[in-house]
Amino acid sequence: MLATLYLVIQSVRLIAGFPVIKVSSVIGIIILAFIINLYITGVFAFLSFSFGVEKTLPNSYYKIKSPRFLAMLFRYLGGEYFRIFLLNTFWAIKKQRNKYFDGTRTGIKNFIIQSKKSEWGHLIPFVIICFASAYLFFLNMNALAVVTMFINIIGNFYPIILQRHHRIRLSRFM
Length: 174
Prior knowledge:
Distance between the termini: 34 Å
Largest sheet: none
Number of helices: 8
Number of strands: 0
Structural class: mainly alpha
Order of helices and strands: HHHHHHHH
Helix content: over 70%
């Protein structure tokens, strides 16, 4: 809870400071864009895995209405490469992967719950960071806006698509 509160305060301070931020180096822009994404996404990641807030969205949201379109989008955007990247970096430790799926039938149900938590933890920040990027454009901080949005797409949009894709694949077993 304290981590969430800390990140909320830092995120608000950061966004409130946009009008006076002056970053001219490419490295500075990349670092600041990363921090914007990290703080805002972190708020919702902590909430999602600590408090089960994924239930705030109706079950109808989590139901995949166009599985063929989503599968095509996943392929077109290179979702499989993103999945492989995650498995070889963040999820390389088998013990960590087993928290999501342990290979059993009840593990499938847990995996679906975990995928909803992950999706919720990326969906809300994706929307907020889209607005933050638009605000940066409004402030004529175009380079920071573009880099922030790029990191948002990789760090939040791709995970959303991946979680939805997981649930399509798992629906065959349920």
